[in-house]
Amino acid sequence: MAGFKLLVGLGNPGSEYENTRHNAGAQWIEALARQSQCSLRTEKKFFGQFGKVSIAGEECYLLIPTTYMNLSGKAVQAVCQFYKIPPENILVIHDELDIAPGTAKLKKGGGHGGHNGLKDIIAKLANNREFGRLRIGIGHPGHASQVANYVLKKAAPDDYAKIEQAIDESLRYVEDIVHGNLNTVMNQLHSFKA
Question: Which residues are listed under the site Discriminates between blocked and unblocked aminoacyl-tRNA (predicted)?
């Protein structure tokens, strides 16, 4: 299976959103950048923070859109057009309400599940849904009407610690992820629970 060239971590820009549940994807990219000693810089033409990194001999691009979440596709589209990256070579890392904090799941393709960042990326990729997703569990507040508020708040300390552990755990598989060995990763990562 083709690997991933562009790794995109979703979040909202600005210090008031830092470490909120909705920014789990951005946190993942920040952690990977630190681990790879890659400095992300603000790149106006890509509407985000951008960096290049070599992972297991593959050159990859890291992106954290600095548009708001519901405009994430603008940044993804800009990078893809510039570097000619097809949707199936993109991995989007995002927060996921439907799985518990302390877990992370990898999948290829699928819908947006109501996630505004994914919704916009799908729209800007001309409705192509074939990109990969690494879903970082943040848990669900219990009722749909509470979701908007919930995702924009910081998780409780023990949940936050679990989210960080799931991020660390999934980063252990980054070489396999980049090379497209998704089944290998799924077999191990999906049984992890912080």
Answer: 12
